[in-house]
Amino acid sequence: MCGAKVGGLLLAGGKSRRMGGGVKCFLELGDKTLLARTITRARPQTDSLLLSINGNPSRFDSYGLAIAPDIVPDHAGPLAGILSGMEWFAENNPDIEFIASFATDAPFFPGDIVARLHKAMVAENAVLACAMSNGRTHPVFALWSQSLRKQLRHAVIEEEARKIDAWTANFPLATVEFEVAGVDPFFNINRPDDLEEAKALIAEGGVM
Questions:
Q1: For the stretch 88-112, what's the b/e string if a residue is b when 16 or more beta carbons lie within 10 angstroms of its beta carbon?
Q2: Is residue 48 one of the residues assigned to a domain?
């Protein structure tokens, strides 16, 4: 925990084209689904968790999470998912000050990411913070001030903004570099080969 009220937003609304379709976060890695692994890592870092999805919400019933369907139709992307999460928290849990967004297909993300993003945001007087590794930004792994909600709504609904980087460039943004020690902590499972590589990493004991 970082001292502020943080709502965790698990982004699971993609089409998974490169994986061959379906709900990618239901894929199994070791003894857990990708979604279960994300929940395990995100829950201790946040005050509550919310799942951002497209499609039938009953598929996720067994996880026991609150669900925020995208308010923009036709798979509008993660920026629309973040807006949906902000709107849900504003209505249902208005004490939440920040939204921490997590991809559900990057199962090795750091257990201290929220605290480090919040520390950088405060230090740099920013309203956003995102993770980096190997010099590359990971805009889906980010901390968002709820003060941005109305501006984000206007951008997504009225201006049809879709690219996270393009929109966040308009605001003070802190970045935090995370060390790559053997495995990139933001290793992303996009294709079947990536899933097999992740399984091998776990089997070798390189990651948990």
A1: bbbeeeeebebbbbbbbbbbbbbee
A2: yes
Domain around 142: 6-203
- Is residue 164 within 8 Å of residue 96, measured between CB atoms? no
| 111 DSSP assignment | T
Confidence of residue 208 (pLDDT cuts 50, 70, 90): low
Q: Which amino acid is at 115?
A: A
How far is 103 from 138, CA to CA, in rounded Å?
10
CA–CA distance, 51 with 110 (Å, rounded to integer) = 19
| CATH number of the domain within which 174 lies | 3.90.550.10
At CA 82, angle to CA 78 and CA 88, rounded to 5? 140
Q: How many CB atoms lie within 10 A of CB 163?
A: 12
Taking the C-alpha atoms of residue 60 and residue 63, their distance in angstroms, rounded to an integer, is: 6
Over residues 138-183, the pLDDT tens digits come to 999 999 999 999 999 999 999 999 999 999 999 999 999 999 988 9
Which helix or strand (DSSP H or E) is residue 91 part of? helix 78-92
| Full-model pTM | 0.93
